[in-house]
Amino acid sequence: MNNFDKFIRDHAGMFDDEEPSANHFDRFDQRLAAFHESSVKQSPIRLWMKIAAGIVILMTLGLAIFDLAT
Asked: What would the mean pLDDT of 33-54 be, rounded to a whole number?
């Protein structure tokens, strides 16, 4: 057990008494919303690459099925 774990275990009572500040949850929600907004945005190139990959997969499957059928 390292020193940090020992400190937490020895002083656990100090951490259980305090409540977060009133605006803590508001700030947390704002940061979480900003994180989700930044992660949702995709560049158009990524969208076109996904479409192109899907087309290549469909063409490969079609060619394989055609080859097996003939």
From this structure: 83
